[in-house]
Amino acid sequence: MLKTIKEMEKELRLDKFLGNAGVGSRSQVKVLIKKGLVTINDCKARSGDEVIDETKDVIVCRGKRIELIKYRYIMLYKPAGVVSATEDNLDKTVLDCLAKEDRKDLFPVGRLDKDTTGLLLLTNDGELSHNLLSPRKHVDKTYYVTCETNVTHTQMEHLRQGVDIGDDKMTLPALAREGKKENELYLTIREGRFHQVKRMMQAVGNKVTELKRLSMGSLVLDPNLNPGEYRPLTEAELKDLKAGSLKMPV
């Protein structure tokens, strides 16, 4: 009986399945199979060439069931000096901050300038990325801003009302709060225009010298991470982030 196209799409070589699941490289997987540490439906696997149905077959390696994780979500504390891209001919990218085995298919959700630090989400979930970046959703993004000169009350009030940064319309009202020093502030914006924070501060008569993103939607930069470090999102973080990304602004 001929197999349907859908049935064939679910079939995968065992070694590729295990590799995609993060068990190890093809050579490492070969060793595991040779040692009898991999089973297919309770039967010891014979070789990595065996074809399995990832939706039906039960694959166990070293006593643990292996399942493919379709989407991955990584929180990165972006350091200065790297660009928010998957590849670049001149500069180090945010993917270069990850171990090689963790980079597969990931891309940054949005962009942070090369000199901007802080929270950056890396994923292979295009739908979530679209929802977080959609101009219609107005997802909040909070930055800690260090300026060239002290931030005045007048400047803060202008930011709260929206400012003209040279686009066809004013920025949306921002949430501006005093920072730890007089030349610093917390700034929450609901858009993602090009160099927006820097242009907003320039519009009110100041200049950004350092910029760090602290949060995006419900996702907050882990204080235990150092620049260049990363970790997977927790289930709770992902659930809240997805729920928030689906809401339309009031």
Q: Mind explaining what this structure looks like?
A:
- There is one protein chain.
- 27% of the residues are buried.
- It contains 7 helices and 15 strands.
- It folds into 2 domains: 5-65, Roll (Structural Genomics Hypothetical 15.5 Kd Protein In mrcA-pckA Intergenic Region, Chain A), CATH 3.10.290.10; 73-246, 2-Layer Sandwich (Pseudouridine synthase), CATH 3.30.2350.
- The strands form 3 sheets. Strands 7, 8, 9, 10, 11, 12, 13, 14 and 15 form a 9-stranded mixed β-sheet that branches. Strands 3-2-5-6 form a 4-stranded antiparallel β-sheet, with no helix packed on it.
- Strand 8 (107-108) and strand 9 form a beta hairpin.
- It is elongated and about 75 Å long.
- The protein has 250 residues and is α+β, with helices and mostly antiparallel strands.
- It has helices at 5-9, 14-20, 26-34, 126-133, 153-161, 196-203, 235-246, and strands spanning 11-13, 38-40, 43-44, 51-53, 59-61, 64-65, 73-78, 107-108, 117-123, 141-147, 175-178, 184-189, 208-216, 219-220, 230-232.
Characterize this entry briefly:
This protein is 23% helix and 25% strand.
List the helices and strands and how they pair.
Layout: H1 5-9, E1 11-13, H2 14-20, H3 26-34, E2 38-40, E3 43-44, E4 51-53, E5 59-61, E6 64-65, E7 73-78, E8 107-108, E9 117-123, H4 126-133, E10 141-147, H5 153-161, E11 175-178, E12 184-189, H6 196-203, E13 208-216, E14 219-220, E15 230-232, H7 235-246
Parallel strand pairs: 9-13
Antiparallel strand pairs: 1-4, 2-3, 2-5, 5-6, 7-9, 7-15, 8-9, 10-12, 10-13, 11-12, 13-14
